[in-house]
Amino acid sequence: MADVVLDGRLNVDAVRSHFPALNQKQVFFDNAGGSQVLSDAINSIRTYLEETNVQLGASYNIGQKATEKYNEGLKAAADFMPSEHPRILFADSPVIGPSTTQLFSNLSQAFALSFPDDAEIICSSIDHEANISAWVRLAKIRNLKLKWWTPSAEPGDLKLTADNLRPLMSEKTKLVTCTHTSNILGTIHDIKAIAGEVHKTPGAMLCVDGVAYAPHREVDVKALDVDFYSFSWYKVYGPHIAVLYGSQTAQQDVTSLGHYFQTPADTLATKLGLAAASYELVGTLPSILSYFGPDRKKTWSAIAAHEQRLQGILLDYLNQRDDVVVYSERSADSKLRVPVISFSVQGKSSRDVVEKVDACSDFGIRWGHFYSKRMVDDLLGLKQDGVIRVSMVHYNT
């Protein structure tokens, strides 16, 4: 990606040339629902289907090529989020699935067979339902105690911290689940500090939804010290698949859902994958990794700086209006938030505002709860139309 970082700044024209969809008049400000796809990823799918669309594991020539492309995809997924052994493909490789929702559901099923009877689960109430419903269901099936982690009822103070988690922890806590960044609020949570609090309790694990964070910042699961971390590639400039990382220690608690003859079940993919990873889509992941260039930290730094300028323009406008409520972080500081900005206008329906924007411009924004319905209904009190959300990424101008 050397062509898109120039003198430490993002070369937005070069960035946009990698995304064919941006040649249209539509202005994509609904990226938290799904980003546009890199041209190299699109071409990779076509090439795979034209040249290597066979079952994996065969010894004939095309079968070997197909297997190699798939394994390269798994390696790219592991390399995208540095972990304990990022260069050893099967020692610590993540599992690919159709969605983060499905992967968390599979993980909860695996835990259903291994959690002790007196285990306690703590769920953040400001999360996307993907990282809630699986654990609510697990608690109900196993009759486990479920605690809700609600940081505050104030719209401007909905932030998860180690401090407001601590009173909920006990010696029986087995799992804590939360979001790295809310897909409504955009606020970045200090996951490393939260992980440190969780791991004070022996055997307790932290499961993080990184879907709204991964398009904007580098994901370093080793530095974060998380046990499980998942995000969707279709939010990170690729196709509609997702990835779940699990530390080697945490994987010991994961009972395999795979076939009885798949032994030893020593990888997360074997335990939870259930053959749900599309071969041609997994094959795109090296092209996504390549897009960020040889110095990914430099690229992510340039992205953060560009996004800070972007969100600053919108937040400056919204913050000066007396009739607008901005939910959670009002600062444009890239250390505090990503450019997923939600608000409401006093005396106006969120749906009406969005539809009027649709009618008079090419800006694509959204209204609703975006699957964070518990927070929107119970904490924000916006049950009918939800929030107005503008979600940008680095190819926006």
Strand order of the largest sheet: 4-10-9-8-7-5-6
Q: What does the radius of gyration come to?
A: 21 Å
Number of helices: 15
Summing up helix and strand content along with how strands pair, one would put the structural category as: alpha/beta
How far is it from the N-terminal to the C-terminal residue, by CA?
18 Å
| Total beta-strand segments | 15
Which regions are unreliable across 5 or more consecutive residues at pLDDT < 50? 85-91
Strand percent estimate: 15-25%
Largest sheet: 7 strands, mixed
Order of helices and strands: EEHEHHEHEHEHEHEHEEHHHHHEEHEEHE
Helical fraction equals 25-40%
What spatial form do the alpha-carbon principal axes imply? Answer: globular
The overall average pLDDT, rounded, is 94
What does this structure look like?
There is one protein chain. The chain contains 15 helices and 15 strands. The chain has 397 residues and is α/β, with parallel strands linked by helices. The strands form 4 sheets. A 7-stranded mixed beta sheet has the order 4-10-9-8-7-5-6, with helices on both faces. The longest helix is centred in the last third of the chain and has 24 residues, at 296-319. It is globular. The two termini are 18 Å apart.
